[in-house]
Automatic annotation (TrEMBL):
Keywords: Disulfide bond, Glycoprotein, Immunoglobulin domain, Membrane, Signal, Transmembrane, Transmembrane helix. The chain crosses the membrane at residues 163-190. GO terms for biological process: cardiac muscle cell action potential involved in contraction; regulation of ventricular cardiac muscle cell membrane repolarization. It is a single-pass type I membrane protein. This is Sodium channel, voltage-gated, type IV, beta b. Residues 24-147 form the Ig-like domain. It comes from Oncorhynchus mykiss (Rainbow trout).
Length: 228
């Protein structure tokens, strides 16, 4: 059998369909993520020392990760500290501090880049932004905000509603337990009464049988043989 080859002009072919765009979810799953915790705010007493938490995460790792903390001063972002983390498992060095009473306490063990604010004042109140940029992810960056509220004294939480609800629930449980105890006691008494009635009935039946047997023996006459 002979093989026939056909020459096809590529210009005559229909254009190839365009490739589908990349899914944003795929990139975001590998993107850098900064986090200030599940509760990104705090109410602290004036003069106390507070922790501003922040951690970073990246599925593909980091290289020369740049991070900083910034304070929002009425719309003007003031840099608090900054540094670069060379790679995974390495601590940043050095860390530049631009604000008084600030201490960097981060560690590479848990991807931690948190800071401490010592002896806070009312001027420290506001929003703090934890920012990071990872060159390994083509400069992917992300930020998270932590809000600090400074007060003269901590507010006393009004637990009146909680106490009322707890009392109502406790009262309902106690009432239910009392009802169950009374119910069980009544059932026990009824059972004993029924059992006593059965015993009395058996005793009466036994006495009646004995009386009938005795009466029958007294009334029966002996048979006399007939004379021939």
């Amino acid at each position: 059998e002979s093989i026939v080859y056909y020459l096809i002009d590529s210009a005559s072919l229909p254009p190839s369909p365009p490739l589908p765009p990349s899914l944003p979810g795929v990139w975001s799953a590998q993107g850098l993520e900064m986090s200030t915790g599940k509760v990104p705010f705090m109410e602290a007493l004036n003069g106390s020392t507070v922790l501003l938490p922040c951690t970073y995460a990246s599925c593909i790792g980091i290289k020369n990760l740049y991070f900083n903390w910034q304070y929002n001063d009425n719309g003007t972002m003031q840099k608090v500290c900054e540094s670069v983390i060379p790679s995974d498992g390495m601590d940043p060095h050095p860390v530049s501090i631009y604000r008084e009473r600030v201490e960097f306490i981060g560690t590479s063990d848990h991807n931690n880049i948190s800071i401490l604010l010592w002896n806070i004042t009312f001027e420290d109140e506001g929003q703090y932004t934890c920012f990071g940029r990872n060159p390994k992810e083509k400069g992917k960056n992300h930020s998270a905000i932590f809000t600090l509220v400074v007060v003269d004294e901590l507010r006393v939480v009004d637990n009146t509603l909680t106490i009322i609800i707890a009392s109502a629930v406790g009262g309902a449980i106690a009432l239910l337990m009392t009802f169950m105890l009374v119910k069980n006691f009544i059932l026990f008494v009824l059972f004993k009464i029924e059992e006593r009635k059965k015993i009395e009935c058996l005793v009466q039946s036994s006495s009646a049988d004995e009386t009938n047997n005795v009466s029958g023996s007294k009334t029966s006459k002996p048979l006399t043989p007939k004379k021939k």
